[in-house]
Write a structure and sequence with these properties.
146 residues
Length: 146
């Protein structure tokens, strides 16, 4: 989308424009743990938690960790599985959760939360559209971000 926006002056007057998207971007999301932090940050904002919390600290809360794992197992993995990428998604979830719990990585929620609304719409809504799978919790996060 950003490429189209940046090229808008060259596209003026274009007729029957077709945009093709390479699914490798979506596959790349498997190696980039974005959906988890987006879902976690949304809860952090909703709950008005302390500004200096890290991802690891907020996932120390059993309810928040349970929420994230539910999103991963009930919405993210099935979404990728719908595109024949279920095994990769399961490995992604394991790697991501290990990364979040790494005591040497202090991912501050306040840093990750910058441009949160834009990230949520672009990433989560994009994922839901791409996968076509039911994702009520991700959908609620996108609706709240709008």
């Amino acid at each position: 989308m950003r490429s189209l926006e940046a090229s808008k002056y060259w596209l003026i007057g274009a007729r029957n424009l077709t945009v093709q998207v390479d699914a490798m971007y979506i596959k790349g999301m498997l190696n980039n743990p974005e959906m988890g932090p987006n879902a976690t940050i949304n809860r952090w904002i909703e709950q008005g938690r302390a500004e200096n919390l890290t991802v690891r600290e907020i996932l120390g809360d059993a309810d928040t960790k349970g929420f994230l794992l539910t999103v991963y197992h009930n919405e993210v993995i099935p979404g990728f599985a719908a595109r024949q990428m279920g095994a990769e998604a399961e490995a992604y979830v394991r790697t991501t959760m290990d990364r979040f719990e790494n005591p040497f990585l202090d991912h501050r929620l306040s840093d990750i939360a910058q441009n949160h609304q834009e990230k949520v719409v672009r990433r989560l809504e994009g994922f839901m559209t791409w996968s076509g799978a039911a994702a009520p919790k991700l959908g609620a996060i996108v609706a709240a971000a709008r």
